[in-house]
Amino acid sequence: MKNKSVVSFSNISTAVLLAFFMLMFFSPEAKAVVIKGLMQIGFFQPDVDSGREITPALAEDISFTDSLGKTVSLSSLKGKVVFINFWATWCPPCRAEMPSINKLSRNLKDNKNIVFLMVDMDNDYKKAKKYMTRKKFSLPIFTPTSALPESLFSGSLPTTIIFNKRGTLVFKHEGAGDFSGKKVQEYLNKLSAE
After folding, report:
1. DSSP at 175
2. Tell me, what's the pLDDT at 46?
3. How far apart are CA 95 and CA 82, in angstroms?
4. What is residue 185's three-state secondary structure?
5. pLDDT digits (tens, 9 = 90+) for 34-54
6. Where are the alpha helices (DSSP H) in 2-113?
7. Among 146, 88, 80, 158, which residue's Cα sits nearest to residue 113?
């Protein structure tokens, strides 16, 4: 009788695949790395369309608070383009898209007509700040201090919305998106010049 070796290519590849799927199931960071890799090859590109208005007017009573307790309402930001991203630290697609939003924010930092609000839906500033610091992101963290209408946020993380200078919702994207591309930057610059 022949002794079959327990170690074979088939067994090794099965073990590697099993380990990969276990890692993907239990590690948000691993999922984020895979999604980020897919972004780099062209997946998850947000479809910015400069001619589309989603809502006729801004919901003026919506407000957000930063870690210092300063409250900002959307109505106070009229006259500026407002980029809002709803996210959470435990959310792999949020983690995957965060570097692209940070890059976009850095590229537009000199345009004072564009405001970025990263809205932590866990309402945990300490945890969100720790994550941003660890990743070396320079994005402002806010939490909602008023109810959010479903037209802005239906519960899907991440969700990114953009308001034009008139306070009209002109862009909404649910799920991960690569916001680092030139097309998004040009879109925001165009909105800020209107």
Report:
1. S
2. 80
3. 21
4. helix
5. 777 766 766 667 877 645 666
6. 9-26, 28-40, 92-107
7. 80
Residue 49 φ/ψ, nearest 5 degrees: -130, 105
CA distance 103 to 106: 5
Close Cβ partners of 35 (under 8 Å, ≥ 6 residues apart):
44, 92, 93, 96, 97, 176
Backbone torsions φ then ψ of 22, nearest 5 degrees: -65, -45
Please, is 56 exposed, middle or buried when counting C-beta atoms within 10 Å of its C-beta (0-12, 13-18, 19+)?
A: exposed
What tokens does 31 get?
């999922």
d(CA 73, CA 60): 7
Cα dihedral sign, 167-170-41-20: positive
Nearest to 163 by CA among 100, 116, 107: 116
Q: Indicate the length of the chain as a whole number.
A: 194
**Which one-letter DSSP state was computed for residue 117?**
E
Q: What are the E-state strand segments in 145-194?
A: 159-163, 169-174
| CA gap 63, 186 in Å, rounded | 27
pLDDT band at 61 (very low <50, low <70, confident <90, very high): confident
Say if CB 87 and CB 121 are below 8 A apart. yes
Q: In a 3-state reduction of DSSP, which class is residue 121?
A: coil
Residues β-bridged to residue 63: 73
